[in-house]
Amino acid sequence: MKSNYINGELAEEIDGKIKLVRELDKSMYKLSLKRCDKKAIEKNARIHSYRIENPGHGVPFSVPRNTHRKGIKEGIKNIENAFKWGVENFDPEKFEESFIRELAGRITPEFYDSEIAIYRDISGRIVGSRTIPPQPYKFKTREIPEFVNHIKDNLSCPEIIKKIETAIYSHLHLARIHPFVDGNGRTSRILQDIILDHLDIPVPIINAGERHTYYNTLRKAILDWNNQSGEEKKEVTEGEELFYDFIAGKINVSLDQLLR
Q: What pLDDT, on the 0 to 100 scale, is given for residue 48?
């Protein structure tokens, strides 16, 4: 098994655990237990995905008098609804850019008149990053079509590690392209999780307390990718390897949760 992005030893460990999960006794009790574990992992990931971008808001049920309580609940509910819709509608063979816009529209409905998001038509900025996202004309005519084709092509690969790398690719590059006025991080993480769920792989949980580590690895991956001539680059950069290993490590931990 060859991995292009994830560390070889980590990839082998993940591959082995996936095989163990799939070989578990399929009795109704154990099957139900694993489904409950998987749902708990997914729900936890939804909450932390919101908190990563809203570190000062806390969690509504742990902070009873939180003044942001209503907004927090709505934000988490939007992410959960987007994930549910995505899981029900994701088809790798029919994956189109409209899926991304519908996903984003459900995550940040306050920005749009319908459930379908529209791409930004102004220059974007990734908060706290030295990199500048591609201009609207470039990402609409070139980068989004290439992004969609890459996902469709690579999810047809028989190797599970390649498919996991494709899920992480969707996270990294949708965040890099930054096609919407807001909600890009949440949309990129949820798209990744939808792909993983389609593969029956437990989603990674990035704890809110790890937001600085997460953002630093993400920013370095984007910076290194941009510095190597973008689409024409040949080698995997250090930043990309760090980001892929960070997310893959989180998937590895979620697999441990299912196997405990």
A: 84
